[in-house]
Design goal:
Layout: H1 7-10, E1 15-16, E2 25-26, H2 38-41, E3 61-69, H3 75-93, E4 115-120, H4 122-127, E5 158-164, H5 167-181, E6 185-194, H6 227-231, E7 242-243, E8 246-247, E9 254-263, H7 265-268, H8 273-280, H9 317-321, E10 332-333, E11 336-342, E12 348-358, H10 365-373, E13 382-392, H11 404-407
Antiparallel strand pairs: 1-2, 3-5, 3-6, 4-5, 7-8, 9-12, 9-13, 10-12, 11-12
Bound molecules: protoporphyrin IX containing FE.
Length: 408
């Protein structure tokens, strides 16, 4: 959906609003419209069968944030919070101001493909007395030998993913949601990431990560017949009231596995391009398999070179991670790159905010990570530093709030 002008102008302009607190704005006075480009005007519908921000094309800026319910806050407070968050996200994604306390940060921008996606962590169900409704899919992920996880930056009662094609629009949404949390929930951790800006290349291209690789080629494609069943929990409950991937309230939802994966860039950048390509099994320039063709050509996993060795090495990341090596395990990897300066060890604190979406993490992320953890060639150059697992319910219909089918 395309909107013509930024909300500030379209809705009639701005004055400082006393009721909204110092620095808050309300649309009350006419002003000249702010013309928008196609990029600024692009709006991703908030309401729908699935939450936005899963099958939506990757945006240029993203924030991940986890919240814990405040002491004393339970189910009733969680319902009120999800109502506030839903109203806030619905407004912002349409390019309207946040209810009550808009900060004006995104005044002259349109929605810029803003999406806000909400999820529930394992501990949410204890806090709200809903343990019986907790999907087994939220059981803690197994420990992996390569984990260096920081509990303070892992998991959480509630999770939000914000994405937009403009950094101010993304921050504006994050801030509005933090404020809407009020005294009900406190930020446990938050992380910010980025991707290439849309329009930087003449045609849309698969993203490149901070190791320089084309990243996302092997993802399930939306046009593929199995995309929905791989990414989303089926809507039709089984006869016992459960769906294969959890309770009925999760119908049309998805499970997000979040991993903050540091890239050991100083080590990686010492490798020749040839060595880097063998680590993945694909060409750095265009993402094509080392066995030839273009990015979308299938890998030839049996082809050997003149030296008799496999062209795509036995420990190449793409070989080990591919569905046919893992009982069909598939996930939609929708990651943001991050960089937070130089770490205490003097190396870049940079890498991937890895977000994998699947209908069931037990048949998606877990078997693949188990296999990779036994030592794919990439393992020596990355470190998993934080982890989260969240149940992301289906999308809210107009008039509904996100998570209503769980909380009502
Ligand atoms: C493929 C990079 C972590 C699962 C790839 C590819 C690259 C890559 C460059 C080949 C292109 C593509 O198909 O996207 C990375 C980097 C990682 C990382 C830099 C960490 C910083 C992970 C993790 C998992 C994973 C933790 C899951 C547990 C996959 C899968 C494929 C893939 C399923 C597609 C394989 C195929 O079907 O061909 N990755 N990856 N990756 N990766 Fe990773």
């Amino acid at each position: 959906r395309l909107l013509g002008t930024a909300w500030a102008a379209g809705a009639g302009g701005l004055v400082v609003c006393a009721a909204g607190g110092a620095g808050a704005y309300a649309a009350t006075r006419p002003a000249a419209p702010t013309p928008l480009t196609r990029l600024g005007a692009e709006a991703v519908p908030f309401h729908g069968t699935h939450q936005a921000g899963i099958a939506t094309p990757l945006q240029a800026a993203g924030h991940l944030a986890a919240f814990d319910l405040a002491p004393g806050a339970g189910r009733a407070q969680a319902v009120a919070l999800l109502r506030r968050w839903t109203a806030c996200a619905a407004a912002l994604t349409e390019g309207r101001p946040a209810p009550d306390h808009d900060t004006g940060v995104a005044l002259d921008a349109g929605p810029c493909s803003l999406t806000v996606t909400f999820g529930f962590g394992h501990s949410f169900f204890d806090r709200t007395g809903l343990v019986k409704q907790r999907p087994v899919q939220l059981d803690p992920l197994p420990a992996f030998s390569s984990d260096h996880l920081d509990p303070a930056r892992s998991n959480g009662d509630l999770w939000i993913q914000v994405g937009a094609d403009d950094a101010l629009v993304a921050f504006h949404a994050l801030r509005a949601l933090q404020k809407a949390a009020g005294a009900t929930a406190r930020v446990r951790w938050q992380m910010s990431g980025f991707n290439r800006s849309p329009g930087a290349t003449a045609h849309p291209m698969t993203m490149r990560n901070l190791m320089g690789q084309i990243d996302g080629t092997g993802n399930p494609q939306q046009s593929a017949p199995r995309f929905d069943e791989q990414v989303f929990v089926p809507a039709k409950p089984a006869s016992d009231g459960t769906t294969p991937a959890g309770p009925a309230w999760m119908a049309n939802g998805s499970y997000a596995v979040v991993r903050r994966i540091r890239m050991l860039l100083d080590d990686w950048e010492k490798l020749s391009v040839d060595a880097q390509e063998k680590v993945i099994g694909r060409r750095k320039s265009d993402g094509a398999p080392l066995t030839g063709g273009t990015e979308r050509t299938a890998m030839n996993l049996t082809k050997t070179g003149p030296d008799g060795k496999l062209v795509i090495p036995a420990d190449a990341h793409a070989r080990i991670a591919q569905p046919s090596a893992n009982g069909g395990a598939a996930m939609l990897r929708r990651a943001f790159s991050y960089q937070d300066g130089i770490g205490a060890d003097g190396t870049p604190d940079a890498g991937l905010l890895f977000v994998a979406w699947q209908a069931d993490p037990l048949t998606g992320f877990v078997p693949v990570q188990r296999k990779l953890d036994r030592g794919d060639a990439l393992s020596a150059f990355i470190r998993h530093e934080a982890s989260g697992l969240f149940a992301v319910p289906g999308g809210a219909a107009e008039g509904e709030y996100v998570g209503q089918r769980l909380l009502e």
